[in-house]
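Here is one chain, start to finish.
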Amino acid sequence: MADRGAPPHVLIYSMHYWPEESGNAPYSTGVAEHLAASGMAVTVVAGMPHYPAWEVDAAYRGRWRHTEQRADVRIERFRHHVPGRQSAVRRAVYESTFLAHAGLR
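Its structure:
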């Protein structure tokens, strides 16, 4: 049975999240931080930062999983394939490896 005194918990899946500054990362970050500031417990399941360079940020390279906290939001990051060049097949691998790893959560 849920604890009635606990705040509602929101789980957001978004491949893109802070510290990425373009694409949909600012929107997913803003929504998560707004909900957390409103008193909700928020967890974001995200990919490793890589956009717009299409290269995993140096601070996150070599990790399969990483957990961090920012603005009262718990961020659980999962490794995924990041293609250096885009094609339909590479994009499918990119999306499916995120779904496979994040789905293990």
